[in-house]
């Protein structure tokens, strides 16, 4: 069986980071520097599951010095996604009996909860989310654990991600990988890999 491994953000689901930054800046009157400092301080611990969504919210509430509710914060934090329709439609038509799809993503529980509720994927897949696994790309531990968890045959697997450092991390761990920039090119690479 062949394995297709996809990053989630900006591969299957589009992410508008600028929209998030502008919404947080306008809503909480934070400077870009303050938001960047907050992100640097808490990104790794949040994305590796060392702090929960509620703890992350409480830290943001303290930093922004506002009384924003958790639900309002979660909505602001997550209202940045849209489908990559061309990619999802293509994957949903693949012969699922002959392939396995794994989504391997750096993400957090607030985002995933929102995506599953509002942007469900119309095909079967296995999950490998950083906040559940304790590692983020491009850490070696992420790829090592991914390969082990799903007993991935590296001769029959391919990985797509939109960030070059994550591709380099995957290649370092012997996973055939391609940088996703253009959906039509990624589809062609999938077709070549599957012999379609």
Write the topology of this structure:
Blueprint: E1 2-6, E2 13-15, H1 17-28, H2 32-47, H3 53-64, H4 70-78, E3 81-83, H5 85-92, E4 99-105, H6 109-118, E5 126-129, H7 130-133, H8 140-149, E6 157-161, H9 164-172, E7 177-179, H10 183-194
Parallel strand pairs: 1-4, 1-6, 4-5, 6-7
Antiparallel strand pairs: 2-3
Helix pairs in contact: 4-6
Write up this protein.
- This protein is α/β, with parallel strands linked by helices and 196 residues long.
- It folds into two domains: 2-15 and 83-194, HAD superfamily/HAD-like (Rossmann fold); 17-78.
- Helix content is 52%, strand content 15%.
- The longest helix is centred in the N-terminal third of the chain and has 16 residues, at 32-47.
- The protein is globular.
- The model has no long low-confidence stretch (mean pLDDT 94).
Helix content: 40-55%
Described by strand count, sense and barrel closure, the largest sheet is: 5 strands, parallel
Content of β-strand: 15-25%
Could you state the CATH homologous superfamily of the largest domain? HAD superfamily/HAD-like
What is the end-to-end distance?
15 Å
The structural class is alpha/beta
Query: Into how many domains do the coordinates divide?
Result: 2
Low-confidence stretches: none
Q: What features would you highlight for this structure?
A:
single chain; about 200 residues; alpha/beta; Rossmann fold; 2 domains; 5-stranded parallel β-sheet; two-stranded antiparallel sheet; 10 helices; about 15% strand
